[in-house]
Amino acid sequence: MIQMKQVSKTYYGDQVETKVLESVDLTVEKGEFVSLYGKSGCGKTTLLNLLGLIDTPTAGEYWLDEVNTGTCKPKELAGLRNRKIGFIFQSFYLISRLSVLDNVILPMKYAGVPRKEREERARILLAEVGLTERMNYLPSRLSGGEKQRTAIARALANHPAYILADEPTGSLDGENRDRIMEILTGLNQKGHTIVMVTHDKELAGYSSRIIQM
Ligand SMILES: Nc1ncnc2c1ncn2[C@@H]1O[C@H](COP(=O)(O)OP(=O)(O)OP(=O)(O)O)[C@@H](O)[C@H]1O
After folding, report:
1. Residues with CB under 6 A from ligand 1
2. Ligand 1 atom showing the smallest separation from residue 48 Cα
3. How many domains does the chain have?
């Protein structure tokens, strides 16, 4: 379960302070599919980065599965992130010099999964997103939808309970968008908790709860 209590985030730049989140209380139960919905600049990505332990709040508490993340050392946070969270971004962030298969294998390497097991699992995940025939391609040879399906397989590599998606269909056309949303809905039905950032009302409609920011 995700629990934020009175979480605030302010960015401090050269002589400028940007207060983005103020005293946010948020609970996401296991198995929910939640959309963070709102206009550009309202802080959706900021909130998702806090949830994904990519960034830390300036005030308040963030509890992830009974762990008060504010008390964790950087190494512990990295461990939590690796074990529990899968990230999907609008611009995919695939590693261009690695094949599709190796992109999916990489997070398992970091998590210390034995070589044979990580390759087997990557093949299964890529089959699940319909990419068996693209396994040895470099990302530059993939379509946008294929890139995002690779990123989804990679996000699933370490069996994360939580999937955090930041505008996952933002750079895709209608058909690919529907396919990605079907995959996310299927993952939610299998038990993954999903938090998705979107500014698109129709996409927010796929989720079981919309949080208007
Ligand atoms: N690293 C940073 N340093 C300073 N300000 C930042 C930083 N990251 C974000 N901001 C500011 O915080 C505000 C919220 O940004 P954020 O990206 O969270 O919004 P968003 O709702 O995801 O927007 P969009 O839909 O356009 O992606 C913006 O005004 C942005 O300029």
Report:
1. 11, 13, 18, 20, 38, 40-46, 199
2. 18
3. 1
The tokens for 61 are: 């508490």
How high is the pLDDT of residue 173?
87
17 part of a folded domain: no
Rounded Cα distance, 139 and 91, in Å? 12
Of 123, 138, 38, 118, nearest in space to 48 by CA: 38
- Domain assignment present for 110: yes
For ligand 1, the distance from its centroid to the CA atom of residue 80, given in whole angstroms, is 24
Nearest C-alpha to atom 31 of ligand 1 is from which residue? 41
Interval 50-107: pLDDT, tens: 999 999 999 999 999 999 999 999 999 999 998 899 999 998 999 999 999 999 999 9
**14, 46, 139, 177, 208 from 10: Cα distances, Å:** 13, 10, 35, 33, 29
**How much is the pTM?**
0.93
Query: Which residue has the CA at smallest separation from atom 16 of ligand 1?
Result: 43
ipTM of predicted complex: 0.95
- CATH code of 120's domain: 3.40.50.300
Residues 114-167 pLDDT 10s: 999 999 999 999 999 999 999 999 999 999 999 999 999 999 999 999 999 999
